[in-house]
């Protein structure tokens, strides 16, 4: 194959790759495709690609030869070693200025390393978050590219052509920043997704087990909520899931095992939060809730042996439903507030110049966490680009404050009924902690100094000046080293 005719190459024809390839072609681009298993290329070319502007290739060499310069190659392969192995094959075949794009869910530190490697070889590298699932890949995903800045002018027309659009017509893609910034933003997106899904699950559980609502009743509740401030993709699909019946009119939801899976991006988010010292409590609880759900057999055995002391709900049922709506909205604000704090901390650590309002705009359409709510986040950062925490923005401060009473009633009802709500309750605990002028950490510091001579600061002394007390009369003046997260 000698004629370079394709505008972009795509490697990996699994669900996301195949649908993105079709998306690219439908927007006027000629696409060269390659898959390690050649039979998949043949099936694609004879099936969904038939009669369209695709070039099927059977080797990496053929793919590279089919591309116009500067070559643009989009990889959609499993994160990890597979990406490095593919780079090993590609780099010797490419020329300076060619662009390699990783559209998988790679760990952002891997993308930082790969960006340096590819740039040292004279080429350009992009690590791009892609969100929206199978449907989004085909009709318009949210795209979060970062890496070699020189690549953006070349791929921007392609990304803007295939991405989702906001209701106002703005493209749901933008340049996130240097090296691993794109994949970091996608990681935060996925962490918030974990939190949103768990919050909705807890709300569903309270409706089902405290109020005794059936699926049809809950379907109507979520349909109502989706027409209000909770308007979002995840609320919308929850509404539809609750109404779905199989051929025998059985509710499919009720037949699904209650053991959740995960691919790791939520865990990565929590690990990074721990490294940065950011209290990402809600997302952390969402990750651990999935881990607890996976212990299905242990939970079944425990349920037979441990009987809770619970109180049946005797209050106003409609009031609790409305309280749940308000608690869910307030908790979502906490999730995003924590996620944005982690974005700020990482930007400082990795020296990224992130556009926080722009990130909210990119998430407005195409992605899993898309919602009307994100427009308010964009406005918050337009009002104050240096906003430290969403809870300090006038809109969000009022939104949470006005829902406090409902939020607390929900936590009381769930706890009294023996229903676990780790995310709804941890969100409230974070709110109460963040708004507290004084916390019991003074006692923690005294304890640490007592048993380990870790020192403490004093209220009437400058920050950074440390003191030690010989609490027992035997410790002396020697102190230990410590760190502050």
Can you walk through the features of this model?
With 485 residues, the chain is α/β, with parallel strands linked by helices. The protein is built from 20 helices and eight strands. α1 links the parallel β1 and β2. α8 packs across α12, α8 packs antiparallel against α14 and α14 packs across α19. The relative contact order is 0.09. The model has no long low-confidence stretch (mean pLDDT 95).
What is shown here, in short?
Helices cover 52% and strands 7% of the residues.
Characteristic terms for this protein:
485 residues; alpha/beta; 8-stranded mixed β-sheet; globular
Strand and helix layout:
Layout: E1 8-11, H1 15-26, E2 31-34, H2 38-46, E3 54-56, H3 60-65, E4 72-75, H4 81-90, E5 99-102, H5 108-120, E6 124-131, H6 133-139, E7 142-147, H7 152-162, E8 177-178, H8 181-209, H9 215-226, H10 233-243, H11 265-276, H12 281-294, H13 296-305, H14 317-350, H15 356-362, H16 373-383, H17 394-401, H18 404-416, H19 422-434, H20 441-452
Helix pairs in contact: 1-6, 8-11, 8-12, 8-14, 9-10, 11-12, 12-19, 14-18, 14-19, 15-16
């Amino acid at each position: 194959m000698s004629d370079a005719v394709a505008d972009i190459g795509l490697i990996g024809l699994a669900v996301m790759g195949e649908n993105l390839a079709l998306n690219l072609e439908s927007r006027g681009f000629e696409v060269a495709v390659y898959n390690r298993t050649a039979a998949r290329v043949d099936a694609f070319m004879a099936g969904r690609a038939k009669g369209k502007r695709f070039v099927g290739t059977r080797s990496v060499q053929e793919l590279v030869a089919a591309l116009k310069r500067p070559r643009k190659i989009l990889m959609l392969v499993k994160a990890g070693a597979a990406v490095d192995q593919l780079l090993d094959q590609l780099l010797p075949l490419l020329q300076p200025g060619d662009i390699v794009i990783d559209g998988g869910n790679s760990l952002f530190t891997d993308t930082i390393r790969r960006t340096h490697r590819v740039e040292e070889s004279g080429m350009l590298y992009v690590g791009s978050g892609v969100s929206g699932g199978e449907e989004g890949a085909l009709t318009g995903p949210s795209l979060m590219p970062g890496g070699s800045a020189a690549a953006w002018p070349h791929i921007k027309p392609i990304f803007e052509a295939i991405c989702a659009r906001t209701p106002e017509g703005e493209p749901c893609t933008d340049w996130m920043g240097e090296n691993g910034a794109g994949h970091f933003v996608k990681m935060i997106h996925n962490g918030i997704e974990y939190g949103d899904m768990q919050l909705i699950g807890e709300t569903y559980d309270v409706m089902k087990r405290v109020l005794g609502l059936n699926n049809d009743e809950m379907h109507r509740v979520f349909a109502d909520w989706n027409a209000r401030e909770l308007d979002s993709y995840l609320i919308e699909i929850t509404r539809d899931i609750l109404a779905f019946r199989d051929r025998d009119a059985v509710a499919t939801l009720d037949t699904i095992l209650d053991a959740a899976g995960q691919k790791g991006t939520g865990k990565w988010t929590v690990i990074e939060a721990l490294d940065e010292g950011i209290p990402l409590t809600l997302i952390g609880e969402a990750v651990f809730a999935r881990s607890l759900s996976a212990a299905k057999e242990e939970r079944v055995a425990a349920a037979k042996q441990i009987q809770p002391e619970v109180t049946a709900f005797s209050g106003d049922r409609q009031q609790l439903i409305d309280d749940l709506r308000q608690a869910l909205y307030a908790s979502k604000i906490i999730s995003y507030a924590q996620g944005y704090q982690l974005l700020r901390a990482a930007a400082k650590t990795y020296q990224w110049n992130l556009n926080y309002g722009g990130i909210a705009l990119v998430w407005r359409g195409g992605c899993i966490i898309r919602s009307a709510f994100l427009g308010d986040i964009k406005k918050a950062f337009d009002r104050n680009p240096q906003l430290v925490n969403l809870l300090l923005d006038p809109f969000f401060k009022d939104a949470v404050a006005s829902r406090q009473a409902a939020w607390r009633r929900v936590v009381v009802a769930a706890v009294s009924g023996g229903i676990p709500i780790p995310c709804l309750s941890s969100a409230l605990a974070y709110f109460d902690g963040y708004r507290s002028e004084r916390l019991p950490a003074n006692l923690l510091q005294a304890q640490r100094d007592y048993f380990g001579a870790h020192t403490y600061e004093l209220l009437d002394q400058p920050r950074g000046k440390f003191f030690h007390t010989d609490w027992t009369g035997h410790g002396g003046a020697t102190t230990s080293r410590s760190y502050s997260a």
